[in-house]
C-alpha cells in the first residue's frame, strides 16, 4: 500500500540514487551521469537539513521522493516570502504508473497549506517533463511564465504556481 512520509536517514543514499536514476532514465540530465546537477540530486542529507524530504513507499520498497522548501531555505530557487517550493520530484522508473508522483506532489501541497503564512506553492520543471506537468495541472497548478528561467544556456525551466 502506497504511503507518503518523511525520509529516514537510513534511506538518504537509496533516495539519492533513485533520484539520479529517475532523472537519467528520463533524459533530464544534459550531461548524463557527469551532469553538474547529479551531486545535488544525490545529496539527500543536505536537502533534509534545509527542507522537508518526503518519500513514497510501498511496504519497505522506496518508490520516489520529493523536497518541499520554505522561506529561508537555501533550496528555494523561485519562491519568495509566503511561498513554498517543490524541488526534485522523482519516481523510480520501475514504479511509474502507480500514483507515487501524484501522491508526493499532493503531499507537498498539503504541507504547504499547513505551514503558517504560506500563500502559494511554486516549482520549476524542464519543458520535457510532461508527465510531471500533467500531475501539477491536475492539482490546480498553473503556468507562471514570469518565473521561467535558464540555469544553463539552453536549459529552460518552466515555472508553475498554485495559490493556497
TrEMBL record:
UniProt KW keywords: Acyltransferase, Transferase
Domain N-acetyltransferase: 2-164
Keyword Acyltransferase set for record: yes
Entry GO MF terms: acyltransferase activity, transferring groups other than amino-acyl groups
PANTHER family: AMINOALKYLPHOSPHONATE N-ACETYLTRANSFERASE-RELATED, AMINOALKYLPHOSPHONATE N-ACETYLTRANSFERASE-RELATED-RELATED
Protein name (database record): GNAT family N-acetyltransferase
Pfam families: Acetyltransf_1 (PF00583)
